[in-house]
Design a protein that fits this description.
This protein is mostly beta strands. It is 3% helix and 54% strand.
Length: 498
Amino acid sequence: MLKILFYIYLICICLCVPSFVKAEDRLELVTKETSLGKIDPGMIKESFVISPNSKRIGYVAESNGKSCIVIDGAKKDYDGIGVGTIKFSNDGNHVAYAAEINGKWFVAADGTESKRYDGIGSGTLRFSPDGKRLSYVAFQGEKQLVVLDGFEGKYYDGIGTTPMFSSDSKHLAYVAMQDDKQFVVVDGAEGSGYDAIRSTPFFSPDSGKLTYIASRGNNWLAIVNENESAEYDRVVLSPVFSPDSNRVAYPAIKDNKWFVVLDGIEGKRYDRIGTDLVFSPDSKRIAYSAMSDGKWLVNIEGSESKGYDSVTSVLFSPDSQRIAFMASQGSDQVVMLDGKGHGEYQGSGKGIIQFSPDSQNLAYVILDDKGQFMVSDNKEGRHYNDINASKIFSPDSKIAAYVAIKGSRCFIVVNDTEMESHSRIEDFAFSPDSRLIAYKAMDNNGWSLIANGHQGNNYDSFLPGSSIIFDSPKKFHTLAIRNGEFLYVEVEVVPTKF
C-alpha cells in the first residue's frame, strides 16, 4: 500500500514539472573549479576585466607606488598600467594591455612587448573578431599613429576614433586628422578629406562596404565606399546596412523635414524620424517610426500605421514575415502585430518585446497599477513587482522563461509556472537543446549555480559581468569567488536514475 501511494505521489510531482525537465531522472551537478588566483589586496576594482567567453580575468593592482598587471592570477610589475587598456580577444586566447617603464609606454600582447612610445591611447586596443590581429593608437611627440599587428601606420596630427575591424578581420578603418582636414583611412589608404567626420566608420556585415557620416561646411553627407550622398542639413544617425549588405538606409534632415534615405532614394517627409530604423532579417523589408502632425506612426515599406502618442520597439520576426511594435494612446498601451492589435492594456510597456525563434510566438512585458506581467502566446501571466526578461524563449521556442520578483523573493517563471524561490537570481541561460535552464541564485548559504532546480556548489559571489555560457547541451561555465579566490567554474549536468 505504501509503495502504491509513493508511485501516486511521484506521478503527481511529474505532472507538475515543466516539460523541459526529464521527470524520470534526478540531476546531479558535477563541478570542476580552477583557481584564477587570490584577490590581490591592492586591486583597483575599476580596472577589472572579464574575457568575452567568461573564462579569464585581468586587473591592475597597486603596491608601494608600483603597478602590476594580474592575468588569471599571474602578476607582472610595471611603473604604470594604462587605464582601461586590458583587452581580451573574443575567444579568450589572447590578452593585451598598455604598460609604462621609465616614462615610455608600450603594448604587451601575450607577454610580447611592442616598441616604446610617448603614450598609448586609452581604450584603443582592439583585437580582430577572429582574435588573430591587434591594433591600437600610439602617441609620439605631437603625432599619433595606428599600430596594426606590430607595424606602424602613417603619423598624423591626430587619430579621431578607435580603429574598427571588419567582421571577417581582414580590414581596418579609422579617422585621421591632418592639416585641418579629417578623413577615413582604410587598410592604409586615405579617403577624401572633409571638415569633420561625424561618426565612427563601420563595415557592412559581409565586410565589403564601409560607411560613415561627414560634413563639408554646414552640409552633412553619408559616405558608402567613398561614394557621397546628396548634401543635407544633417544626417541624423549612422547609415544602417541590411543583413545581406546590399541595402543601406539612414535618416536625414532637409529644410526642417525629416526623411529616410533608402538606397539613395529619399522617402516621405515627416516632422521627426525615430531611432528604431530596422531591416528584416531577409533584407527585403524596412520599417521605422516617424512623427507627423504630433502623432507617431510606423512606416513599413511605405505603408503607414495609424498615429499614436508614442511608438517603441519596432521588431521583425526571425523569419521576416511578421512585424510588431509597442504604442501608447493616452493611458492605454497597445501591442501591434502584423497591423492588428495583439493586446490593449491600461498601463505602459516596459520596452521588452521578443519573437520566439520560430517566429510563431510574441512575448512582452506590461506595467499597470498592480505591477508587471508577461504576455506570451496571447496569455497574461501573474503580476509581479518586477520582471527581468532580457531573454525569454528557449532555442526550440517551446519554453518562455523570465526572472520575476515578488516581495523579497525571486523566481524563474517557466511557461507560467514558478520554480523554487530565492533571495536573488541572476543571469539564467538555456542549453542549446532547450532541455536545461541554468541560473545563479543567492540564499542563506550564499550563491550557487542551479540547473533545472538542482543546486551546485556554494560561492561567496559570482563575478559581475560573467555569464553562464553553455559549451554543450549538458556543460556550462562561469566565474565565481570563494574565500578571496577567483574561480573558473565548469559544470556538467549528469542524470542519475532513481
